Each structure stands twice: as structure tokens, then as C-alpha cells.
Amino acid sequence: MPKSILTSFVQDLVKGLGLDIDLEDSPSYTLEIQDKAVQLELDDTGDFIFVSTVIGKVPSGMYRESVLEQALLSNGYPPPQFGYFGYDLNQDILVLHQRFHVTKLTKKTLMDAIPGFIQMSTDWGRAIGSASVPIAAKPDPSQAPSILEIMGIKT
Asked: How far is the C-alpha of 56 from the C-alpha of 131, rounded, in Å?
């Protein structure tokens, strides 16, 4: 039986990370990348692959308002974007997510997108972890680390 499109992309991604893992078909995968649990899943229509990670808990009050204001500003920048912020009211957590249309997605596109996504989630997570308000900045893909740098592999 052929593997699903999600499994094929995740298989390519883990091979690109230098891992030799044969994946079983699954509706979603969680990869640990730089101490971040990165979830990859196919939407119900099969048209998009969603990538998401939890940034962290954001305490209520003025601090939360300031963080969410910066997240909204970040979401408003024109493409290219490393990801978009969402907030889960039930768990008080900030989440970073991105979606890719499967017909436009290539192994290279995914490999190029993950480092900026991880860097953005790490930067925002550090700021929130130290009770600082992250500042929204226009993503600059030329400043994103490579996938090898994200994995700590020296070239």
C-alpha cells in the first residue's frame, strides 16, 4: 500500500535531518526539533499539511494583552511568513502554526521553512519564559538558520 502524502513528506524531512527512520502511515506526526515538539498533520480535506508547535503559557493580565498584541502585529506582516500565532483560551497557550498546500509543497520548501519556524518559536518562547514581551518583526528568510544549524550539525 502506498504511503500517504503526509507520511512521504515527513519521511523526506527526517531523511533530510540525517535520520534513517521508516515511518508507518499515521494521520499526524510529532518531531522533536531543538527541544520543540513540532506537530505535522494533514487537514480533513487532504489539501494542506499543518505544522504547529506550542510556544508556551501566557499569564493573564496586561502582560498577556501585550504579548497577544505583538502576535497580531506579527500575523499581519505580508508573506513570506515563518508562521502565524494562535491562542488557546482553554489552556492559556500561544501556538505557532503554518500550513502548506500539498500541490505546491516540495521537500525543499518544507526543509527551507522549518528552520525559520523553529527559530521564531524559540525566540518567542524564550521571551515569554523570561516574562519579556516579544517584539513583532518582519521575518527575513535570508536570516533564518539552515536546517543543519537548527539540528546542531556543523558544516
From this structure: 11
Could you tell me the residue ranges of all domains in the chain? Answer: 5-143
Cα end-to-end distance, the chain, whole Å = 38
Residue 87 forms beta bridges with which residues? 94
Per-residue pLDDT of the chain (155 residues), as tens digits, is 456 888 888 888 888 777 777 778 888 888 888 888 999 998 989 899 999 999 999 998 999 999 999 999 999 999 888 999 999 999 999 999 999 999 998 888 888 888 899 999 999 999 999 999 999 988 777 776 666 566 555 55
Concatenated DSSP letters of the chain: -PPPHHHHHHHHHHHHTT----PPP-SEEEEEETTEEEEEEE-TTSSEEEEEEEEEE--SSHHHHHHHHHHHHHHTSPSP-S-EEEEETTTTEEEEEEEEETTT--HHHHHHHHHHHHHHHHHHHHHHHTTPPP------GGGSPPHHHHTT---
| Class of the CATH domain delimited by 5-143 | alpha beta
